[in-house]
Amino acid sequence: MNEKARAEEHLRVIRSLMERATIYRAISAPTALVGGLLAVATTAVLWFGDNARLTTAPPLDGRRFAEIWLLILAIVLGLNAFFVRREAQQDGRPFLSSGARLALRAIAPCLIIPAATTIWFFKNAEPIDREILVAVWIAFYGLALLATALFAPRSLVVLGWAFLLTGLAILFWPKSLGDDPRQMYPTLAMGATFGLYHLVYAACVWAKSQAGTRELLATE
Amino acid sequence: MPDFDKLDKAIHEKGRLAIMTLLASRVSWSFQDLKAELKMSDGNLVTHLRTLHKLGFVAVTKEVLDRPQTSYALTTKGRDAFTDYLHVLEQIVNAGKA
Fold first, then answer.
1. How far is A140 from chain B (nearest CA, A)?
2. Range with lowest mean pLDDT among A70-74, A96-100, A131-135
3. Chain A residues within 8 A (CB-CB) of chain B?
């Protein structure tokens, strides 16, 4: 290897280390995987449950719909805390690293509107308009991810845009897709976004981390 | 023409270069964070940090929060040395293009 190639290799390793040090991934692959699987499973249960009582009972109540998804959110948040704590213990680091605190500060303002909307719907809306609720949840979740864009890996930014654009599309889609008497479109939207999007993201992160580890070992 | 002989040997060693790079990317790093990021043994990391500290490149802060913690940061001298190191590397790359 000549001197120019050696110098380029050194600079590449330095840049790679600096990027790794300044990037923080707000959603880990295990959290995305578990969250995605839970969302897909919940969608399947709601879908088949609705089909089973198609002729005997009215569609699932909007309030119950929101409660189920909030329960799933609580489970995923609990599991995420477990994953973060386990990783921190393994590395001998504090539970809330500087990267985690930075991400929380960026994300928190984006969660105020969906939280307020959810509370408002529970208190005032009768019946709950689940299409608007789902659109707000999805769009603002996307905004929260995009709020970390300055220090997030590209895959997380792409995920943020996917959520944001899907949330906006959901605001308009019921009119174009026709009647939804059983109100299953919002359930399917939750399964597609919080389920499938997260599963695709988890698969991409895992594939990339494997490739990254191989590359780093090769240069060392 | 610039060559590898002009590079600061203290920084050029692979382990110390990685430490200097990380220290240049943030205001300060705890020992545990450095260890986790670089996947180095305690002894190896301590030896390199001690070398860099003796050269005046790295400042050490010891504090007791919920537990004792040692943090490391680049000094002005260390940052200048790292910048000079990068300049020499750039010059080698640019000279190769000419």
1. 30
2. A96-100
3. 2-8, 10-11, 13-14, 17-18, 20-22, 91-93, 97-98, 220
E-only strand ranges, chain B: 29-30, 58-64, 68-74
The pLDDT assigned to A219 comes to 41
- The size of the A-B interface in CB pairs under 8 A is 60
A8–B93 CB contact, under 8 Å: yes
Residue bearing tokens 């995420």: A80
Q: Do A40 and A192 form a contact (C-beta atoms < 8 A)?
A: no
ipTM of the shown complex: 0.81
Chain A residues within an 8 Å CB radius of B26: 21-22, 98
Average pLDDT over residues A6-10: 84
Q: Over 60: is that where the pLDDT of A220 sits?
A: no
Domain residue limits, chain A = 27-219
Single-letter residue type at A18: M
Domains plus CATH for chain B?
A: 4-97 (1.10.10.10)
| SS3 annotation, chain A | CCHHHHHHHHHHHHHHHHHHHHCCCCCCHHHHHHHHHHHHHHHHHHHHHHHHCCCCCCCCCHHHHHHHHHHHHHHHHHHHHHHHHHHHHHHCCCCCCHHHHHHHHHHHHHHHHHHHHHHHHHHHCCCCCHHHHHHHHHHHHHHHHHCCCCCCCHHHHHHHHHHHHHHHHHHHHHHHHCCCCCCCHHHHHHHHHHHHHHHHHHHHHHHHHHHHHHHHHHHC
User: What CA dihedral angle connects A158, A159, A165 and A168, to 10 degrees?
Assistant: -150
Q: How many CB atoms lie within 10 A of CB A178?
A: 7
Write down the pTM of the prediction. 0.69
Q: What percent of chain A has pLDDT over 70?
A: 86
Q: Which of A137-146, A171-180, B73-82 has the lowest average pLDDT?
A: A171-180
